[in-house]
Amino acid sequence: MPNCISCGRELSSANEPHNICPECRVAIMQRAQSSLPARQRRSIPLKTVPVTTTVIAINALVFLAMAFTGSSPSEPNIPDLIKWGANDGLATLLAQPWRMLASNYVHIGILHIALNMWCLWNLGILAEQIFDRWTYFLVYTFCGITGSLVSIVLHPIRVGAGASGAIFGMAGALISALYLGHLPIHPSALKSTLKSLLSFAGYNLFFGAVVPAIDNSAHIGGLVCGLAMGAALAPHLTSPPDERSAWNRWIFILATLLFAAAYYLARHYVPMMSYWHPRPGS
Q1: What's the CA gap between 245 and 251, in Å, rounded?
Q2: What is the total count of domains within the chain?
Q3: Residue 250: which CATH number?
Q4: Does the annotation mark 196 as catalytic?
Q5: Pick the catalytic residue: 6, 151, 164, 217?
Q6: Has residue 39 been placed in a domain?
């Protein structure tokens, strides 16, 4: 029987995701909450944040569907995660690339989804004020699949799931947009918001680096993608709608081509022998 990679205790099941015991998973989630950006105090009508609300609803529906079909709401095992769309290492890269998107809507227990959705809600309130709806959704999606791809390349035998890569990507896009976009925001408010976003990204990247159970590669992949996309979108955030839409369209076409090229290179040059390496705990 394998041991928990965080505390060293023997696991009760070989199917514990990431080889971490339930107690350590709870502790990780609780400590990460302290780094979240400050939540806005005023009431936010759901109709003003339709993209954020829709994405959170999809995540919640997938989680409930998993629970009602027999998956543990607190400790889903690896077969259940894979069944519902989690990344499955090189199997995803070579045969089922759709998992790079689907995995962003699958979570490893109620604490995992609760923390991610709280982060998304706080970031989404700001994102929906800066980006138009389709831009927001496409940036979120591109950052999510980029995080998945980076995770697969660096950890080809690891099962991965969760929205954190996409969420880190939105944080990165907001940092670039606020810093480079010349938006009509008071300097003190701009400085405070940037400080909060940078603290969120920095603390969680550090935390992910020292806790083996956290897939920091997906965080970094999503963050870098978000920073790049936010920087590319920033020059036209305040342009007239037609000009902004045309610019954004070219950005997403270029992003699609770059992702396709990265996927092609990963598919053909990630060592094939990794595919036959036994997954930890198997």
Answers
A1: 10
A2: 1
A3: 1.20.1540.10
A4: no
A5: 164
A6: yes
